[in-house]
Design a protein that fits this description.
The protein is mainly alpha-helical. It contains seven helices and two strands; from the N terminus they run H-H-H-H-H-H-H-E-E. It has a two-stranded antiparallel sheet with strand order 1-2. Strand 1 and strand 2 form a beta hairpin. The chain is flat.
């Protein structure tokens, strides 16, 4: 089994079985849904009951076509919003009005209307190059006197390493008493 095959199967099934936790009335129903999805993925990867699994996928896809499209549209909208946040711009600032998909005003999960042509997300903004720092006048770590100053300032000294090695050596020594004499032996 290759990783590409597993990835391809997982993306396909998760694209169809794409309900969110907010779409269920209880966590146990949501967990049952996730378990069913993972069972299908496992069976497809391992080649177990392929015809039955494909039939289950096709039946679910027919029954939940609208819900699948709404969830895909919501994911695309969320990805677009993340890209906008990463770029440091908002949609309202670019066009003067919000271009997000219309939302219904009600309690419960948010519904999105799927559109046929959704614009792609803008490319992520590139970080500005950092200006090169001028050499500092502070001590350099290669000078012995400077190294001692740095060690003192940081609270570290050379004896720490020696103390740690001794602590580890003694902590791994196990002493147990001899049953007959009561003396400690290693």
């Amino acid at each position: 089994m290759s990783m590409q095959k597993e990835k391809r199967i997982r993306e396909r099934v998760e694209g169809i079985f794409n309900k969110q936790e907010t779409e269920f009335s209880s966590k146990s129903q949501y967990y049952d849904y996730l378990e069913e999805r993972e069972d299908i993925i496992y069976n497809l990867i391992e080649g177990i009951d392929l015809d039955e699994m494909e039939a289950r996928i096709a039946a679910y896809q027919r029954e939940n076509r609208d819900n699948i499209m709404e969830n895909e549209a919501r994911k695309a909208e969320e990805a677009r919003a993340r890209a906008d946040r990463a770029a440091g711009t908002s949609k309202a600032g670019k066009t003067g009005a919000s271009t997000s998909a219309p939302k219904q005003q009600h309690e419960g999960p948010t519904k999105y209307i799927a559109t046929a042509a959704m614009p792609s997300a803008p490319p992520p903004a590139q970080p500005a190059p950092r200006p090169s720092a001028a050499p500092t006048a502070g001590p350099s770590a290669s000078e012995p006197a400077s190294r001692e100053q740095i060690e003192q300032a940081s609270g570290w000294n050379q004896s720490f390493q020696h103390q740690r090695l001794l602590q580890e050596a003694y902590s791994t020594t196990f002493l147990k008493p001899l049953p007959s004499t009561g003396q400690l032996v290693e």
